[in-house]
């Protein structure tokens, strides 16, 4: 596999530690998937493209600060992003403890001090801080993501909703429900010929 070439297509240049970490996530995912049902991706190529590369595709939108990954499952997109952005503190949130066990394993093996893992449903999650960014991948429809995220988002924060090509109806639906939010869509870089989009949601300033 052309790991470095694929990362270069996304304009990512990992250092040695980061590259070893991505390879470790790949190797561990394949091993764990033989025992636990982490995901439907069971080949090296599939895990690399649809778990790791896919997770890194919105990298240019990631900022320093606190990032919440809703419905992270075994840690995607949060783990690869935490590895690449050590100044971003990533909270991985999911209700599936078995999948989060994989995330804890990776956190330990990669010594990711910028990762917090929370076993809760988003509806039950309460915290004093507000997140600078909230990201989700294949969690629910856009209006559902916004609905459960706004009370956890800082005033100037952003929601990063990773979506497939057919997002126009979801955006129209969400705009009708959340008039105080602005939404823009952005095409994400990828290594496969499948359109990936990111919907960036911000709260409008109140005059």
Strand content: 15-25%
* SSE order, one letter for each helix or strand: HHHEHEHEEHEHEE
Strand order of the largest sheet: 3-2-1-4-5-7-6
The profile of the biggest β sheet is: 7 strands, mixed
User: Helix count, per DSSP?
Assistant: 7
Give the structural class: alpha/beta
Q: How many angstroms separate the termini?
A: 53 Å
- Could you say which overall geometry the principal axes of the C-alpha atoms support? globular
Uncertain spans: none
Q: Percent of residues in helical segments?
A: 25-40%
Task: Please outline what is shown here.
By secondary structure, the protein is of the alpha/beta class.
Task: Explain what you see.
By secondary structure, this protein is α/β, with parallel strands linked by helices. It has seven helices and seven strands; from the N terminus they run αααβαβαββαβαββ. It has helices spanning 3-9, 16-33, 44-56, 78-84, 97-109, 142-149, 168-177; strands at residues 65-70, 88-94, 115-119, 131-137, 153-163, 181-187, 197-203. Strands 3-2-1-4-5-7-6 form a seven-stranded mixed β-sheet, sandwiched between helices. It is globular. The mean pLDDT is 94.
Features:
globular; 207 residues; 24% strand; alpha/beta; 37% helix
Write the layout of secondary structure elements.
Blueprint: H1 3-9, H2 16-33, H3 44-56, E1 65-70, H4 78-84, E2 88-94, H5 97-109, E3 115-119, E4 131-137, H6 142-149, E5 153-163, H7 168-177, E6 181-187, E7 197-203
Parallel strand pairs: 1-2, 1-4, 2-3, 4-5
Antiparallel strand pairs: 5-7, 6-7
